[in-house]
Design brief:
By secondary structure, the chain is of the alpha/beta class. The protein is 36% helix and 14% strand. It has helices spanning 3-10, 24-28, 42-47, 61-65, 85-91, 103-118, 121-129, 132-136, 157-167, 193-198, 219-225, 242-251, 289-308, and strands at 13-16, 33-36, 50-53, 72-75, 94-96, 150-153, 173-176, 188-189, 202-205, 230-233, 256-259, 278-280. The strands form two sheets. A seven-stranded parallel sheet has the order 8-7-6-9-10-11-12. A five-stranded parallel sheet has the order 2-1-3-4-5, sandwiched between helices. The model is unreliable at 1-7 (pLDDT under 50).
Length: 318
């Protein structure tokens, strides 16, 4: 064996669930030996104790069952709807996620979407760029942000930061979550998403996608939100009944939407592309130069801690 090969073998083995386009694995290749799970031979699969998930492709029970020594599934995301958590529970496998790494940037992005939709920033920009300011005059008036009633579904690390930011705009804030937050939480709790929507001008989705929250925003919720209401989603596309959302936007059941996530990414309903009351982005609420540095710190820290037998940085309660 050559010295180079011996050095490579000395690095702890980490399987990749999918090819990495995050840019994280090249930075960590000095510490770990990465092997794509699909390319792993039987001996490598039998040896692997860690599966690194650098994207959102499903991590299935079949994949987990192929790895008899697996002890840790480490992801770069906050949401874990793409990981078969039941299979992890059955095997006693630990799961880590990005923790609070993305929370600040996601909360900032929510505020940006709220402002962009209510003030029609993208539509006014398009009006100017196509020369309509000179030919047709000013873009029509939009509506103010300050003072709007904001309902947040999921008052976790992202939702609580959204609440603080929009409260600074003078917006009354209410929320729905699995249970009321303990005092001194200053925000009003609603026991159902429909009741929250009925008391909101802006409904923000910042919760995890689970079987309980899948399509939690249906037509009934959108009707409760009302014709002047705005839906903002930075959680997961599956939180919303997407076909009904398209219909409600087209029919004027709600007033607009800011959408960073979609049910079948990278595909999205083509009808949304022509709606000037909708602001769209490609699952980028979490992504900044700073947040990518942060997730690198979290992921590498989790892997280092695992192989050293130290406490993990961001274990997930299963």
């Amino acid at each position: 064996m050559t010295p180079a090969a011996a050095g490579a073998d000395a690095k702890p083995l980490v399987l990749l669930s999918q090819p990495s386009d995050s840019g994280l694995t090249p930075v960590m290749e000095g510490q770990f030996r990465f092997v794509l799970a699909a390319d792993a031979d039987a001996a490598t699969a039998a040896e692997a104790r860690v599966l690194f998930v650098p994207g959102l492709r499903p991590v299935t029970a079949d994949l987990i069952d192929r790895l008899p020594a697996l002890e840790l599934v480490s992801t770069i995301s906050v949401g874990l709807d793409h990981v078969d958590l039941d299979a992890c529970r059955r095997r006693g496998i630990t799961v880590t996620n990005a923790g609070p790494t993305f929370s600040v940037d996601s909360a900032d992005y929510v505020v940006g979407l709220v402002v962009a939709v209510l003030r029609r920033v993208a539509a006014a920009d398009a009006h100017l760029r196509r020369g309509s300011w000179a030919t047709d005059g000013d873009y029509p008036l939009a509506t103010k942000v300050s003072g709007k009633r904001v309902g947040i579904v999921g008052l976790g690390s992202i939702g609580s930061l959204v609440a603080r930011r929009l409260a600074a705009f003078g917006c009354p804030v209410a929320y729905h979550s699995r249970a009321p937050k303990l005092p001194p939480c200053p925000y009003t709790f609603f026991p159902t998403v429909r009741a929250l929507a009925a008391d909101s001008d802006v409904l923000v989705l910042a919760c995890a996608l689970t079987e309980e929250t899948r399509r939690v925003v249906d037509r009934e919720v959108m009707e409760a939100l009302g014709a002047g209401g705005v839906l903002v989603n930075v959680g997961r596309g599956g939180l919303v009944d997407e076909p009904e959302l398209v219909r409600c936007l087209r029919e004027g059941v709600i007033g607009g939407a800011g959408l960073d996530v979609f049910e079948n990414e990278p595909d999205l309903p083509v009808e949304l592309l022509d709606m000037d009351n909708v602001v769209l982005s490609s699952h980028k609420a979490v992504a900044t130069v700073e947040s990518i540095r942060g997730v690198l710190h979290t992921v590498s820290g989790n892997l280092e801690a695992f192989f050293a037998g130290r406490p993990l940085l961001s274990p997930v309660a299963l």
